[in-house]
Amino acid sequence: MSELSEELKKRSGEEQAFEGPTIYLFIQGLENFKKLRQEEEFSFSSGSDDSGPNPAVVLQSLITEGPSHGIHIIVTCDTFNNVSRFLGRKALSEFATRVLFQMSASDSAALIDAPDAGTLGLNRALLYNDREGYMETFRPYARPGNDWLDDVARQLKAVKQSSPAGAS
Does position 42 have pLDDT exceeding 50, yes or no? Predict the structure, then answer.
């Protein structure tokens, strides 16, 4: 997270628009990364920590400032309660595209201002685009297997190594 924080500072400090590579941060199962959880406003620290920037603060700044500097975040989270604990309303509003699976109508209303995900059946999901104002029901597919992901990673690494001047 500290490397991403430094990269955001570097890109933010440039006077003209950044034209480097786009960075994608994937966080699968946000609820499993306790250090990324927002601290309560009134909580007390257990002492000073000089190990670098607070990962939760870095995540919040990447969510709010990153997209305009070519840093994008894709996050999965298991429940609405965990979304609230880790992101909060302000950070959640920065995610223009959201995918919801079957959940309670109240959780759906809190996430997309509509109870539609409460009526989804099994093997259905809802694609919500906040910027363009539409929802679409679709049938999601399973995550690819690790063998396929490893193969794609090897191919991408080969493409990166063969690109001119080691551009990344």
Answer: no
Q: What is the mean pLDDT of residues 23-34?
A: 92
Q: Please, what is the angle between helix 2-13 and helix 55-65, to 10°? A: 40
One-letter amino acid of 57: V
Cβ contact 68:12 at 8 Å: no
Q: Are 116 and 126 in contact (CB under 8 A)?
A: yes
Longest dimension (CA), the chain: 52
Is a pLDDT exceeding 90 seen at residue 128? yes
The CA distance from 55 to 53, in Å, is: 6
116: tokens are 């539609």
Residue 159 corresponds to which tokens in the numbers above? 């493409």
Tell me the three state secondary structure of residue 25: strand
- Residue linked to tokens 């992101």: 87
The number of residues in the chain equals 168
Amino acid in the structure at residue 79: T
**Of 17, 27, 31, 100, nearest to 62 (Cα)?**
27
